[in-house]
Design a protein that fits this description.
The chain contains 3 helices and 4 strands. With 85 residues, it is an alpha+beta fold. The chain has a 4-stranded antiparallel β-sheet with strand order 3-2-1-4.
């Protein structure tokens, strides 16, 4: 179904509620979006040969203090040797 057809099936009151909800979500994203960060990690795997292989991964986090303290899930940084945002 095309967007125009979907919009045509929404009742007038529902359309107003949907518009209000959309504006709230957009406002929240605008306010907290800058606090969300991408966390990249590197982890050395168990030695297999002269140079241990590295695993690279990533996740997300949120800045919670003005000086940049980041909170993320433990599985993102568990047993990693290096991380950066």
């Amino acid at each position: 179904m095309e967007a125009a057809n979907i919009a045509g099936t929404v009742a007038a009151g529902d359309a107003e509620l949907l518009d209000a909800y959309s504006k709230v979500v957009t406002g929240v994203v605008a306010r907290v979006g800058p606090a969300v960060v991408h966390v990249r990690v590197k982890k050395r795997m168990p030695r297999r040969g002269p140079t241990p292989p590295e695993f690279e991964g990533s996740g997300s986090g949120v800045i919670i203090t003005p000086d940049g303290y980041v909170v993320t899930n433990s599985h993102v940084i568990e047993d990693v040797g290096r991380w950066w945002t």
